[in-house]
Sequence to fold (285 residues):
Amino acid sequence: MRIIRKTTEMAVWSQAERQQGQRIAFVATMGALHEGHLSLVREAKKRGNRVVVSIFVNPTQFAPAEDFAAYPRNFVRDRGLLETEGVDVLFHPAAEDIYPPGNQTHVEVKELSKILCGARRPGHFQGVATVVTKLFNVVRPDVAIFGEKDYQQLQIIRRLVRDLFLDVEIVGHPIVRESDGIAMSSRNEYLNADERKAARCLSRSLHRAECLVRRGETSAKAIAEAVVAELHNEPLAVVEYVTISDVETLEPLEQIRQSALLALSVTIGQARLIDNKVLLRSSGE
Ligand code: AMP
Fold:
């Protein structure tokens, strides 16, 4: 596995591979890798014959009061995991290379960035959209894989690719969970043993919503209330939001017709945890 730190070197490598007809698949990460990330890498291997994984803790997507400095970093372990997966290039740029002196351009996906997590994390999705655009322009992948764990991020990236005519296929990948239902996340490292147990309430509440929909409930309000009630059963959980929205525009829904995104954000101890599920009504209802 080749480790590339410079954007110029990355671009030269990609261009040479493309000229030889190779299909480049790309996974962008902030490191502290877990099985969720590795499932994206395995998907990338299926979809391209060259795989590039980036590790870059992007400063512009963290607000000043957020956890940029504390965000878990473990480059040596991550490098070993990616090597084992057979990744071709680990791209690990420095912040000064991604944001050179005098940098003053950003990418904003307006409406999609205002809601859900965007309403609580101003500037976050502008940071994400900007860094993903920069990474795409340097790596120039044919296909890029993103996790549905960050569902809003995935929709924002799909939108910016369409709006800016970027020539890259975006593939969403299902959430990978621990055996007890907790969605894997680098931020789970912030949880102590009690908090880790408490964090099960997120997936439990999603499951509760799924059961309600299966029994014929279509009112978004009723479902959201049941989810909040389930979360409130857990004393360590502080609910930030529970929303039921259109699966593409993420606009709030009152009734579930065919499908809806149930998304939630909950703080437990120091960790802000997000999870989601697409609720599907069975056909014929
Ligand atoms: P991050 O390192 O948190 O920026 O995540 C990098 C990529 O991995 C993003 O596309 C995430 O959506 C994806 N990802 C993170 N956790 C999971 C998970 N549990 N299951 C699937 N994809 C994930």
Summary: Residues 29-30, 36-37, 39-40, 146-147, 149-150, 173, 175-176, 183-186 surround adenosine monophosphate (CB under 6 Å). The beta strands are 2-4, 24-29, 50-55, 89-91, 143-147, 169-173, 237-245, 259-268, 271-280. Residues 96 and 103 are 10 Å apart (CA to CA). The chain has a mean pLDDT of 97.
